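Q: What would this complex look like in 3D?
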Amino acid sequence: MPIPLPSPMPDAARFDLTSDRARAEAFFQGMGDLLQRHGYPEASKFAVRLALEEAISNAFKHGHKNLPASTPVRVEYEVGPERLRVHITDQGPGFDPSSVPDPTLDENIELPSGRGLMLMGAYMSSLRYLGRGNELELVYENPAAG
Amino acid sequence: MSNQPSRLRVTNAGDVTQVSFIDRNILDEANIQAIGEEISRLVDAKDQPKLLIDFQNVDHLSSAALGTLLTIRSRVSGRGGKLRLSNIDPQIYEVFVITRLNKLFDIHETTDQALASF
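A: Here is my prediction, written as structure tokens for the whole assembly.
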């Protein structure tokens, strides 16, 4: 069994997520509380939750497509009053983000998939794939920070 | 699976099947799949179905849920039916705008407006 997430969550931590939904939910809730504590506006909680959901879902669904369901995804984060940085690493072969077609083009608009990446990009301040394409770094700047 | 508890509230308003969600967050892949299957069964039960999906009380929606909505849209359209969406929270509506899906779906502010549009 993985070590339970601390509650409340500290300003920086590194831990593994499995496909256990309750653990992911505890992480999202804890992150919402952290953002609130650091003075991020309410809309930031929505933006960050959406991006983290998409990122972690992609890691399991695509990154770990050919791996056992129990394979963990590594999450590292650091949050302060000015910005949140999250690093998500899966154990898959990686992928090339430029290979994902633009889902907003007329020819793709009715396709049922391919929107997670663009939503992360729309809500985060920056989004970078690192390593062999299996590591994602998300940065979110606090819009309320002076 | 039909033996799973329903994730939906289903009512009928005249010939319109009205669906709303029990969960505030439509994010979990397994739940999204179950919701998609349940709504698909409702669509398949009628000729030219009139389906209203109401998002009151929904706080979060993932891209996988958007994908399921597109699949439902296509299924309704394939049966000569009509699909309307209503009561979408402004933050979630923004997700529809970013993905341009607000242009594809027929979205109404209230349930009454959506019902009147069929």
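A: To summarize the key features: The beta strands of chain A are 12-17, 73-79, 83-89, 126-130, 135-141. Helices of chain A lie at 21-37, 42-63, 116-123.
Q: Very helpful, thank you.
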